[in-house]
Amino acid sequence: MLAKRIIPCLDVKDGRTVKGVNFVDLRDAGDPVELAWQYSEQGADELVFLDITATHEKRKTTLDLVKAVARQVNIPFTIGGGINELRDAELLLNAGADKISINSAAVRNPQLINDLAKSFGRQFVVVAVDTRFTDERNFVYLRGGRDKTELETDQWILEAADRGAGEILLTSMDHDGTKNGFDNVFLKQINDRIHIPLIASGGAGTQQHFVETFKQANVDAALAASVFHYGEILIPDLKRTLREEGVVVR
Amino acid sequence: MICEASCTAEKSAYVISNANNMIGIVNYGAGNIFSLTAALDRIGVAYGMVDEERDFAHFDRIIIPGVGHAGTAMRKLTESGLVEQISKLEKPVLGICVGMQLLSAFSEEGDADMLGIMPLRTLHFDGRISEKVPHMGWNSIFSTGTNTLFQDVPDGSYFYFVHSYFLEVDVNCSAALCHYGLDFSAAVQKDNFFGVQFHPEKSGKAGEQVLLNFAKL
């Protein structure tokens, strides 16, 4: 059976890991390649790198990072951040990235989704969506939840899927950072309406939260950052718990 | 294990002197092969590129990679002028993902004739299953008998799949099965021709073991 995926997310800037990482046996906590390798050894199913490098000139370091990860890590990985046109995606593909993730660039220019899917296949295109519940509805937000758009989240996700998104990474900004669990009600609403994989993000605090999102929302994958980076949840333990709860994992 | 200095995946080929346990990768322009060469580097298997017919002689084993559209891949392979030679090969050949689908007789993707090395059809998941398409992620596979390709790979091991088309099950050719809404061929074999639908280069240790097994055939 197809396994539910566990995905640690790493923020990188100028080729280095940004958020604090607290692994016991890590030589260099700022080295995304070593961290990625550690996660793959622990049984992570996939990795997401979110590139928050501010300047265009430093993007070269991101490509070097992608190449280094592709050389050393034997599981698939996605890179997001700073992808505005086909050329950006092509460079990442040739550097060894399995998928790219686009967020605000897709909102600004939805045709980008079609173009990327046509050029590289829809399996290469993850559309990341940040959502916040305001005025009784979920709206798409940009810039890490700061800028509200007029797009209703469900409508935007359906459009993105229609345009060729291969996967949706849905982050609830209301849940993100709370460690109170994923937004399973909304995730289920979305999951029931799309025919492409859905990755839950935002709110992971305990192992039980992962059990709940797989059981209640039936999402294909769950993503988290700090609970993994700080060692609050170890992936082998999480996999064991999920297995005991009847969730199919690798 | 972090071995920056010894990793040379960016090189497109090693210097080819004589065939010495090297894998030739059929280079016909069907997608990026960086991940494949990186995996071969990690397990210490030498490789080079097959660009034209005479290159086949330089290698002991051949890998046919492939991502994207099977019909397009078959067209590119035909344009490369390598088709006739591939069908005649007697050394071990491994097709990966679309490279495996090329070994079949026909693909619904582009309604295209394939190499016809195995009498199987490549079919679309759409309309045949209610699950999401593409089949993307880690799925367990079960061998249909003993196959050297899966030596030291426990039955039920997980491999990474990304595909919308699959090779049907065949009692003679299916070497391993996978289930996603229906049973399909996770791996096939006929004589010296092998194919895997999953991506061994992205399938953790199990995937590296399959590549190692192929390198030792």
TrEMBL record, chain A:
<dbReference type="InterPro" id="IPR050064">
    <property type="entry name" value="IGPS_HisA/HisF"/>
</dbReference>
<protein>
    <recommendedName>
        <fullName>Imidazole glycerol phosphate synthase subunit HisF</fullName>
        <ecNumber>4.3.2.10</ecNumber>
    </recommendedName>
</protein>
<comment type="similarity">
    <text>Belongs to the HisA/HisF family.</text>
</comment>
<feature type="active site">
    <location>
        <position position="130"/>
    </location>
</feature>
<comment type="pathway">
    <text>Amino-acid biosynthesis; L-histidine biosynthesis; L-histidine from 5-phospho-alpha-D-ribose 1-diphosphate: step 5/9.</text>
</comment>
<dbReference type="InterPro" id="IPR011060">
    <property type="entry name" value="RibuloseP-bd_barrel"/>
</dbReference>
<comment type="function">
    <text>IGPS catalyzes the conversion of PRFAR and glutamine to IGP, AICAR and glutamate. The HisF subunit catalyzes the cyclization activity that produces IGP and AICAR from PRFAR using the ammonia provided by the HisH subunit.</text>
</comment>
<keyword id="KW-0028">Amino-acid biosynthesis</keyword>
<feature type="active site">
    <location>
        <position position="11"/>
    </location>
</feature>
<dbReference type="InterPro" id="IPR006062">
    <property type="entry name" value="His_biosynth"/>
</dbReference>
<keyword id="KW-0456">Lyase</keyword>
<keyword id="KW-0368">Histidine biosynthesis</keyword>
<dbReference type="InterPro" id="IPR013785">
    <property type="entry name" value="Aldolase_TIM"/>
</dbReference>
<dbReference type="Pfam" id="PF00977">
    <property type="entry name" value="His_biosynth"/>
</dbReference>
<dbReference type="InterPro" id="IPR004651">
    <property type="entry name" value="HisF"/>
</dbReference>
<keyword id="KW-0963">Cytoplasm</keyword>
<comment type="subunit">
    <text>Heterodimer of HisH and HisF.</text>
</comment>
From TrEMBL, chain B:
<feature type="active site" description="Nucleophile">
    <location>
        <position position="97"/>
    </location>
</feature>
<comment type="function">
    <text>IGPS catalyzes the conversion of PRFAR and glutamine to IGP, AICAR and glutamate. The HisH subunit catalyzes the hydrolysis of glutamine to glutamate and ammonia as part of the synthesis of IGP and AICAR. The resulting ammonia molecule is channeled to the active site of HisF.</text>
</comment>
<dbReference type="InterPro" id="IPR010139">
    <property type="entry name" value="Imidazole-glycPsynth_HisH"/>
</dbReference>
<dbReference type="Pfam" id="PF00117">
    <property type="entry name" value="GATase"/>
</dbReference>
<keyword id="KW-0315">Glutamine amidotransferase</keyword>
<keyword id="KW-0028">Amino-acid biosynthesis</keyword>
<comment type="pathway">
    <text>Amino-acid biosynthesis; L-histidine biosynthesis; L-histidine from 5-phospho-alpha-D-ribose 1-diphosphate: step 5/9.</text>
</comment>
<dbReference type="InterPro" id="IPR029062">
    <property type="entry name" value="Class_I_gatase-like"/>
</dbReference>
<comment type="subunit">
    <text>Heterodimer of HisH and HisF.</text>
</comment>
<keyword id="KW-0378">Hydrolase</keyword>
<keyword id="KW-0963">Cytoplasm</keyword>
<feature type="active site">
    <location>
        <position position="201"/>
    </location>
</feature>
<keyword id="KW-0368">Histidine biosynthesis</keyword>
<keyword id="KW-0456">Lyase</keyword>
<dbReference type="InterPro" id="IPR017926">
    <property type="entry name" value="GATASE"/>
</dbReference>
<feature type="domain" description="Glutamine amidotransferase">
    <location>
        <begin position="26"/>
        <end position="212"/>
    </location>
</feature>
<feature type="active site">
    <location>
        <position position="199"/>
    </location>
</feature>
<protein>
    <recommendedName>
        <fullName>Imidazole glycerol phosphate synthase subunit HisH</fullName>
        <ecNumber>4.3.2.10</ecNumber>
        <ecNumber>3.5.1.2</ecNumber>
    </recommendedName>
</protein>
